[in-house]
Amino acid sequence: GENVEQHPSTLSVQEGDSAVIKCTYSDSASNYFPWYKQELGKRPQLIIDIRSNVGEKKDQRIAVTLNKTAKHFSLHITETQPEDSAVYFCAAADSWGKLQFGAGTQVVVTP
Amino acid sequence: DTAVSQTPKYLVTQMGNDKSIKCEQNLGHDTMYWYKQDSKKFLKIMFSYNNKELIINETVPNRFSPKSPDKAHLNLHINSLELGDSAVYFCASSQDGTELTGNTIYFGEGSWLTVV
């Protein structure tokens, strides 16, 4: 089955700096890679996703990149703000639609 | 107009009890899920149903039994609760993957289960 590894487990950044979270996956048939943000005590919510036929996608301050050959994908947050503080999860969906989550990254943005 | 709703939100119960968590989605999705999030925040799929049929059944104790009366509902019943069952249980749903929608999963607000 699919195995998703996510790094780092915690990330502390100064407000205004960039944050990068990296994930690797094991199943070369995986074709969909969403990123979820979970604020304290809340549900995980989709913030951006990328499919295997695309290498990069951007939405305002967040961007994702995908390297299918190396089987890794990354989340980039630019100009971080305190409200970006949360746990971020990467995930990979195989061809059956089963989603495997990474272990999460606790992002703390300090003013 | 909550998309995925689950009840109860908080549940404190004693070891050995039997409890249920209910979930409903009004998104018209075909697939529903139960995820468990432990104290380390790890999200692990437990079950997945597509149009009332079980399609994913991860290694979960058989004390956990999902029931889907129709495709808009997926309930979770837990027998003989143990301390280790304490976690947040998230219900979720998705439309079957298509070229346009992919497999975006929408989560409910979670049910905080504490076993004492």
What can you tell me about this protein's structure?
The complex is a heterodimer of chains A (111) and B (116). With 111 residues, chain A is mainly beta. In chain A, the strands form two sheets. In chain A, strands 2, 4, 5, 9, 10 and 11 form a six-stranded mixed β-sheet that branches. Chain A has a five-stranded antiparallel β-sheet with strand order 1-3-8-7-6, with no helix packed on it. Helices cover 0% and strands 57% of the residues of chain A. Chain A contains no helices and eleven strands. Chain A has strands at 4-7, 10-14, 19-25, 32-38, 45-51, 56-59, 62-67, 72-77, 86-93, 99-101, 105-110. The N and C termini of chain A lie far apart (41 Å). In chain A, a hairpin with a 4-residue loop joins strand 7 (62-67) and strand 8. The radius of gyration of chain A is 13 Å and the shape is globular. Chain B has 116 residues and is an all-beta fold. Chain B is built from no helices and eleven strands. Chain B has strands at 4-7, 10-13, 19-25, 31-37, 43-50, 53-57, 64-70, 73-78, 87-94, 106-107, 111-115. In chain B, the strands form two sheets. In chain B, strands 2, 4, 5, 6, 9, 10 and 11 form a seven-stranded mixed β-sheet that branches. The mean pLDDT of chain B is 89. Chains A and B meet through strand 4, strand 5, strand 9 and strand 10 of A and strand 5 and strand 10 of B.
